[in-house]
Give the backbone structure.
Amino acid sequence: MKSLSKIALCTALGAMVVVGSVYAESKLNLFINGQGVVASYLDLQVKDGKVYAPIDRLAEEFKGKAVYDADKNEVQVTLPDSAQQANQIDRLESAMVPSTPKEALDTWVKGIQTRNGALQFAVFSPELRTKTKKEFEDNYWGTGGSSPHMSTIRKLKIKSLNKTTVQFSFDYDLVASNWKGKGFAVVTVKKMESEGYEGWFVTNIKMKDPGDTGTTIGVEPLHP
């Protein structure tokens, strides 16, 4: 799901920044995050493959406002807290883009160990994000459960599949209040561009027992 701020900014930058302009009635069907919007109110127009809209109406659709200051010759756009928070998340994710394959693995492991779905999602490839986003949302961005818990990583092996793809395999300790065990996983990491940033991202995760750490999202069973 695109953030409100990102939708607004992308539309505005690719649009004609107009306050109070009068457009011909639009007959476009518009959906934002899967929800239908009355496009005629926004006066949307498409020209040469670009979408044009008055920025004041666009801001209002996101529960914000746009005000034109004639003295300063500028437009001030105010968006709600949710848009600011989405922008904050974008900033955090951009700062977390893994610069090495091991950094991508370590971030994913930390996400498992802390049961932090948002941290795991931050280092997922675009394809893996598409597959897992709904499940993360349904679980309120938490993963795992009360126990068992993934602990120490052991016997880490690194295999280079090609210049841009690395595969990690490792054992890990499982710890519960009155029980200990072991698990095994294979994680594939690839160098690519995601959300406009180039780095190393997790493309595939296989575990001997995908359920041994609870609800582990984005994981496939590892077949012998």
